[in-house]
Here is the input.
Amino acid sequence: MKNLIKVLYLAPALFIASCDNGFEEMNINPNASTEVVPGFLFTRAQLVTVSNNFTGAAYLTIGGSMQHFATYKEVPGAGDKYFNFGYSQGSWQLYGGDPVSQGAVIDIAQVIEAVSTNPADVNKLSVSRIWKAYLFHRLTDLYGDIPYFDAGKALSSQNFTPKYDTQQAIYADMLKELDESINAFDAAQPTFGNADLVYGGEIAKWKKFGYSLMLRLGMRLTEVDPASAETWVKKAIAGGVITSDTDMATIAYVDGSITASRNFIAAGLMATDYVSPGGDNVEGGKLAKTLVDHLKTTKDPRLNVISVVWTKASATAPYVADTATALQKGMPNAAFNSLPADFDSYSEPNPNTILKYNAPLLVFTPAEVHLLLAEAGLRGWYSATTPAAEYESAVTSGMKQWAAFGAGGVISDAKIAAYLKANPFKATGTLAEKMEQIGTQKWVALFLEDEYEIWSNWRRTGYPKLTPTNYPGNLTGGKIPTRFVIPDSEEQYNQANFYEARTRQGGTNTLSSMVWWDK
Here is the structure.
């Protein structure tokens, strides 16, 4: 730019005058939109929200700490060995960063601003507000107090240092937003249509999604505000929640050459660990012993859908992905610091279900909702059916949903019936024992689909019962991580607000810090 100015300064005035004509137009990118395109940004917000930082957060951190996965290596041992808090910081990029794969907070804020002025866009506004609640409930559950009311306003109001709001205030507003948005839908007005990757603009299904999210968030308050929890849970159930597979919230992916079109779970797992059968893995990962042992002990047919061991008939024969129950063996968490000799004998994700680029993403399922209804029944907040009936519906739905991953995921009715007969809901027993059964089932039913929710439910209820690891030099004193670490950049660029929030939350910003609702 300095050279350009120098050239123009030395050139004759006539030359300057002639070249200045149209100069501004030359600096306009003809391929860039000068206005917000709500449909495009809403699509992007959906994709970025669900996929952001999957490998670092859902797989290596939460997947390890919830003992779905294990690794022998130390660097990726955020969840396995409670090392390397840096993996947890990546989810903060939902606020902004890489223009291709991050910044859903900005996207949804711009969509809401763009559609909020036209009454005819009421359905687009309602869906955007619901998605905003979905996005922020993930962020606050990961980090606790975060920028919420001021978030995403750098462009619109030049607010580059947003204040941190309490999680209590954020939850209150998210629940209010869900209630207002659901009630504002108008069947006579247009929707996002195909720009909506989850429901294609179907209002009735978005209402059920909104009420299901309200049910989830309401139940999150059981330990800190049981009265509000009961109010919101009852409101959600009365409104109508996702109980049928036809209402399941999903996003479809394709096995194409464009990375963004592929299922990010499959792509992430294959890029980091399960690239090819046999030999070492990039991050040293396998399925965890806790998960595999539980599935084998309960004779859960999902084991053969989820898990394989690579075998060879001879030294020169090709590897075969074997789903035989007897072969499945999970790797213990935090048991190794170098490649174990029997590494090849441990179970990995099934390439015929999980590791498919065109596998769907199950965003919100009937299995989770039925388990929430079972808990509501135990608490006396729901009486239309029994907790046992809801539990059976959750198991059935949780097994049948794997059929969406292809033939390798189909579980027969006979196998489902056999599992329920061997693992019935407790007819007698304490509330704690029944809650443990519900929590453990959620830990299995939401495997990979929503590791974030599994972790949140474990923090709220303590179920399933997991034995922490205590690897030498770990960062938590042998305690399963309970919160993500807010990035160091916040201390540099938003120091005053960050310090205030840190003080309010006990003065720490570590993997052992706790969020408001975690008691």
The chain has 22 helices and nine strands.
